[in-house]
């Protein structure tokens, strides 16, 4: 079984069927947790699954596999009073889930672009260009996001076709610029300090970063690349909590 199928099956049994015995089938003894929702180890995951409330469900949007890493993008219903858009990232070793990171943010019903936080293309295409797309987005993340060289935006982003799923930004570079200006007025400048991971499959490239957005945050940015330019963007911006139920950090 490949890593993508393994993660989809394991998470389906854990969070779909709410089967606590799936922990024994799919989770490594040294399971390392980075989420703010659970402590380290398989027993903490078992407890989380056992206490999932009635009506809890996960609505998948897309899955991206890159070697031993598999990223899920979708929506959780029932974790709290409102649905939560989430990125989950799992590391797989020897047929077991061995490490997990995530970021969650509330669903916004009325977005500026009119697009939801998860709609759009779902299945990775353009697989033969995975490494070229990874290189493009990695350079963009370093030069534009981390180094804040916004003069290079059009070197990487298609100004004509750029589609936005951030709930506060309209489509196109003008939409991004207007949103960034509004955030700056609120004291929330986009500051990227460290790029931790880049996960790529075909046209999809997911970047996990750390920085500030008024407060310390984790940035999870998913980009879709077509014809050598970024044409679509989804994201989750989640606060970095001062205290976690483990000592592993969010990253």
Automatic annotation (TrEMBL):
Superkingdom of this protein's organism: Bacteria
Alphabetized Pfam families for the sequence: SnoaL_2
Lineage: Bacteria, Bacillati, Actinomycetota, Actinomycetes, Pseudonocardiales
InterPro entries associated with the record: Cyclase_SnoaL-like (IPR009959), NTF2-like_dom_sf (IPR032710), SnoaL-like (IPR037401)
Entry's Gene Ontology BP terms: polyketide metabolic process
Protein's UniProt name: SnoaL-like aldol condensation-catalyzing enzyme
Ranges where the SnoaL-like domain occurs: 9-100, 138-233
Transmembrane parts of this sequence: none
Species whose genome carries this gene: Amycolatopsis echigonensis
